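Page 37, continued from 36.
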């Protein structure tokens, strides 16, 4: 059996098939900046052909791991990427070369938060941005293109789309094409921001392919190769010895039915340095971005990385919000008047912190009518 990554519209039974014994290759180079390509690097933005000097296979025939830069072999020097989003910079700092996941159910703001981070980081950063649209809506891809063009950051961005109307082969391989293009930019000693929307659709396409190939699914209905497919992609996001560049990933993850115990979502947890969970309860309260501090976590929130003042402030915020959650349940039963004076101070302080950690986004100005705000880490602390 085989899988098609193109349309199967004109394919018929008994048609001749010729094996090429070639790997799927995508063009790489500076000609990709400002362009939209599909899973195999062909332009889909109606702007003509893309000039390129070479093509690279999206999967390499590896004889071994190759050389990988690990913490024990080099002095650790962390560089924090400032997003301008208060709650992320304070509680879940992004470090260059890290993997970060934005998790949430339908209509919680994953894509809009991803767009805001692209807007705020890429406009300031000197590196490049690679955006991979895996299994998402054509409308969202068009809106992203227009937004990047309007904000004058399209020239630093490569867009690779495998949209939801395409075959599972295209939706699956588009992620590998994206990381291949990011690796090519990284080899030029550049820092790369890799945005993927949506990693769940990538794994879902893998499940469809697994069924088409006749593999027996696992107990939960997903493909038996779920973990290996996720790791094949994530293990290529790293800082290599060959060049001084890095790849930093920010990945949107759809959570089916808001169930964080879904096998596909749980599989991705182990790869992320920061897990940012969006909450439907906070959306209903009108708190945007709807990040749930008590469900989210970050390995980068460390005094050796962010400094003592930042770390202590973040820990105190988390402590107050945890205590607020306990008090909120009490208040719902007996009322705030029954709380002690100290608990009442914490309760009111937590509500102020919740409101403080919200802010209007630049990319949502057309919807909200409010001007976006960029807040530095120092101002937030």
């Amino acid at each position: 059996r085989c899988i098609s990554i193109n349309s199967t519209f004109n394919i018929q039974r008994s048609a001749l098939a010729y094996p090429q014994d070639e790997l799927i290759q995508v063009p790489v180079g500076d000609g990709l900046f400002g362009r939209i390509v599909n899973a195999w690097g062909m332009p889909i933005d109606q702007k003509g052909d893309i000039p390129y000097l070479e093509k690279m296979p999206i999967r390499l025939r590896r004889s071994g791991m190759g050389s990988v830069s690990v913490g024990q072999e080099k002095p650790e020097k962390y560089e924090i990427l400032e997003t301008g989003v208060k709650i992320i910079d304070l509680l879940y700092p992004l470090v260059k070369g890290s993997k970060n996941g934005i998790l949430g159910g339908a209509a919680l703001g994953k894509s809009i938060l991803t767009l805001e981070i692209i807007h705020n980081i890429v406009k300031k950063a000197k590196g490049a941005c690679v955006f991979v649209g895996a299994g998402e809506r054509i409308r969202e891809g068009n809106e992203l293109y227009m937004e990047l063009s309007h904000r004058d950051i399209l020239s630093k961005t490569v867009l690779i789309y495998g949209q939801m109307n395409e075959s599972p082969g295209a939706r699956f391989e588009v992620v590998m094409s994206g990381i291949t293009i990011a690796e090519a930019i990284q080899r030029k000693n550049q820092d790369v921001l890799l945005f993927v929307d949506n990693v769940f659709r990538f794994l879902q396409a893998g499940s469809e392919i697994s069924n088409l190939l006749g593999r027996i699914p696992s107990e939960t209905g997903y493909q038996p190769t779920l973990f290996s497919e996720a790791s094949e992609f994530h293990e290529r996001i790293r800082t290599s010895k060959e060049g001084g560049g890095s790849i930093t990933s920010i990945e949107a993850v759809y959570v089916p039915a808001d169930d964080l115990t879904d096998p596909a979502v749980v599989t991705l947890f182990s790869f992320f340095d920061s897990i940012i969970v969006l909450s439907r309860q906070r959306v209903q309260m009108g708190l945007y971005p709807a990040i749930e501090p008590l469900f989210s976590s970050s390995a980068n929130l460390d005094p050796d990385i962010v400094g003592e003042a930042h770390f202590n402030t973040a820990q105190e915020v988390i402590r107050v919000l945890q205590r607020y959650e306990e008090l909120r349940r009490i208040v719902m039963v007996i009322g705030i008047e029954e709380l002690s004076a100290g608990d009442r101070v914490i309760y009111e302080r937590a509500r102020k912190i919740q409101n403080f950690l919200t802010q209007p986004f630049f990319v949502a100005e057309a919807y909200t009518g409010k001007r976006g705000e960029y807040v530095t880490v120092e101002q937030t602390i």
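The radius of gyration is 22 Å. Flag for discussion at group meeting. The CA atoms of residues 40 and 283 lie 38 Å apart.
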